[in-house]
What does this fold into?
Amino acid sequence: MIPFVAASVKARGGLLLLIRLTVAQSRAIRKTSWQGQMSSAGSVGHSWFGKLFRSREHWKLRPDLDHTVVTAGYGSGSSLSSTSRTSDGKSVIAYIPNGNATALTVDMTNITDGKGTKVWWFNPATGDVSSGGNCSNRGLRCFTAPDSNDWVLIIDAASAKLPLPTR
It folds into this structure.
């Protein structure tokens, strides 16, 4: 078993990101200048998350602590999917740490728009975004990530006309 140093960052909206480093990686980072770390995988990944949150009204995000948005499949412990919804109901963002190992059940009535929704999948490892299509904002809907890696599910109200995530 490899010992880990864990650090968590809580975004204003309540999404929780967990960074796990081996003790050796942690020591190596401390020996390297901050300038040298700007091109590391962790720094680049954080820049993609920054672009994602800047493309949405992140200051309006509220954590889904009572699981009223994601009603099933949210997991627990290290496989917990963290979800937030904007206070005006125009966006839902869910971080899924275990990819397609689980399906998230989303109560689509939490998206306040009579014109339906746009769904996006954001890959935090590459910064790539793919369309998950359009769907109605009625009833429950299951979403399964494209593969077993970490993913972020973004559901936007169609009438909000929000840009592609990360743009």
Observations:
- The chain has three helices and eleven strands.
- The longest strand covers residues 4-10.
- Helices lie at 23-31, 34-37, 41-54.
- Residues 1-167 form one domain.
